[in-house]
Prior knowledge:
Layout: H1 2-30
Amino acid sequence: MNSGGESCIVRSLKKLIVPTSGHLLNEKAVE
């Protein structure tokens, strides 16, 4: 139960972190 919930949270966090980090990298590339 716990491991399953943790993996689900990690996946949701990655979905949130990846787009934001990619957006920041794109902004730096534009500069």
